[in-house]
Design a protein that fits this description.
alpha+beta, Cytochrome p450, 2 domains, five-stranded mixed β-sheet, three-stranded antiparallel β-sheet, 18 helices, 10 strands, globular, binds protoporphyrin IX containing FE, monooxygenase activity
């Protein structure tokens, strides 16, 4: 018996040794046909199986943010490099030419793909993760919710929210822009999507759950009870439970049905399913996509607003030009009316401030795609099954694309930009669905902030929050505020 155990032990040791030698062989490329690596993007695949996952996770947990992982390798290898994360090969590309090929996707060689933790958290029926065929149907159904009429209604609602929020700043004296913006954008999303506008613990709990869901999106997909991922999945379940209850009550006529995105989707689904079921969204699709729109719209817009306030504070000459435009608009319009889409269309310099903030902050730093067939991009061989990521942040900060890329110069957008050089909202078939909404929120916020308060940033630290899905300031950008105009009460 003892001998048998000894033999088993030798077998295990030999198998482990053989595996280690095989992996070292693979990493060093011994005996490989030199042809097979020619043209493959440079880079380090790291350790067997886990690749460079540990380094990636270390970036997520560092104060420089998860983009640091990419930045360091981009500097080392150039515009194209490969790495291995969570057992898969990832290539990062950062030229406008490659962005054009991949985002246009004329030959259907790429599809959108997120890391597993993201797909599990937002749901497989989410617009972010659905198959290309399902994506077409869902995007089609969702995109007409973002009509000019909806945006005009939304601008008024958002203006009202901002005016109310700014009123409460009087007593505070100091506010943390990110916290305030997260609250306001969450409320705006909930109102627009589901007509939820209660000022109570319920909405706070829901916002907390969405926060946990967002944190879990970058977490290691381990379902153990104490993990960030598990907490995110639980929060998702609670969120879905609330949404299911709401849908049931609306269908049973227990709630007066308001005009919102959820109601449009439910009515459309009930109406279309009487005819062609393949054209309607299922309840699963509706629920996953309501959650997706909250996640896609709240955190991104709040982070963008926060960076914009910081950049304006650091560039007082830009702030002065912006103020002149906003005060001239305030003088022209009645103090008793909410802002309209036409008002926003008149904010030409402010729109460039928004665009420049999005360029500098690159809220979504890279866009992931799955390679569906072997192909070649600008001389590099890219294999089927690899992930290819368009590194928008590098493009935004490339001195061959933008002069003085580290400077905040809104007037750089007086002239038309080079194609595929501005990727704040992506481009091509997966362009941000809520970009007009996001721009509108940023402009309304700017108008009310600069015409109501004088403000000063009191902590200029640029460290990035750990575990954040989008680059968010760790300090949240605290500002000191002093009122300069009487309260406005539009009706
Ligand atoms: C400043 C705020 C925002 C920024 C910077 C932003 C940025 C982006 C970017 C870069 C993409 C494309 C990613 C890719 O190609 O892989 C995207 C997609 C998307 N965004 Fe936004 N977004 C913002 C606000 C919003 C808002 C307010 C909503 C909705 C209410 C929204 C909904 C979406 C959706 C649904 C997609 C997925 C589109 C698809 O895959 O077809 N976003 N966003």
């Amino acid at each position: 018996m003892n001998q048998l155990l000894q033999w088993c032990w030798y077998l295990v040791v030999y198998a482990a040794l053989a595996w280690l030698i095989f992996q070292a062989w693979k990493i060093l490329g011994i005996g490989r046909n030199p042809e097979s690596t020619a043209g493959i993007p440079p880079g380090n695949r790291g350790l067997p199986l886990i690749g460079e996952t540990l380094q990636f996770m270390a970036s997520i947990k560092s104060s420089r943010g998860f983009y640091e992982f990419v930045r360091v390798r981009r500097l080392r290898y150039g515009n194209y490099f490969k790495t291995s994360l969570f057992g898969e090969t990832h290539v990062f590309v950062s030229s406008t030419e490659s962005a054009k090929v991949i985002l246009n996707n004329d030959l259907g060689r790429f599809s959108k793909r997120y890391i597993r933790s993201i797909a599990e958290i937002v749901g497989d029926q989410s617009l972010l993760c659905a198959s290309p065929q399902q994506h077409k149907l869902i995007r089609n159904r969702l995109s007409h919710l973002f009509s000019t009429t909806s945006i005009s209604i939304f601008i008024k609602q958002f203006d009202q929210l901002i005016i109310n929020a700014l009123r409460s700043w009087d007593h505070k004296g100091t506010v943390v822009v990110l916290d305030e913006a997260m609250k306001i954008t969450f409320r705006a999303m909930c109102k627009m999507l589901m007509s939820l506008e209660r000022e109570d613990e319920f909405l706070e709990r829901l916002q907390k759950d969405v926060g946990l869901i967002c944190e879990a999106m970058l977490a290691f997909p381990l379902r153990l009870p104490w993990t960030r991922f598990h907490k995110g999945l639980q929060a998702r379940e609670r969120f879905m439970g609330t949404l299911e209850k709401m849908i049931r009550e609306r269908r049973r006529g227990l709630e007066a049905c308001p005009e919102d995105f959820l109601q449009h989707l439910l009515m459309e689904a009930d109406h279309i399913s009487c005819g062609d079921e393949s054209q309607s969204l299922s309840d699963e699709q509706i629920k996953d996509n309501i959650l997706t729109m909250i996640i896609a719209g709240q955190d991104t817009t709040a982070s963008a607003i926060t960076w914009m306030v910081k950049y304006l504070d650091e560039n007082q000459e830009v702030l002065e030009i912006l103020k002149a435009e906003q005060f001239s608009l305030a003088e022209k319009s009645s103090p008793n009316s909410f802002l309209s889409l036409e008002d926003l269309n008149d904010m030409s310099y402010s729109s460039k401030v928004v665009k420049e903030s999005l360029r500098m902050a690159s809220i979504v730093p890279w866009f992931p795609r799955l390679v569906l067939q072997d192909c070649e991009i600008h001389g590099y061989k890219i294999k089927k099954g690899w992930n290819i990521n368009i590194d928008a942040r590098s493009i935004h900060l490339d001195p061959t694309v933008y002069n003085d890329p580290d400077k905040f110069i809104p007037s750089r957008f007086d002239d038309e930009s080079k194609p595929y050089s501005f990727l704040g909202f992506g481009q091509g078939g997966r362009t941000c669905l809520g970009m007009n909404l996001a721009r509108a929120m940023m402009l309304v916020f700017l108008h009310r902030l600069v015409t109501t308060y004088k403000w000063k940033v009191i902590d200029s630290d640029s460290s990035i929050e750990k575990w954040a899905l989008f680059a968010r300031l760790k300090s949240g950008c605290p500002i000191h505020v002093a009122r300069i105009r009487d309260d406005v009460v539009p009706s």
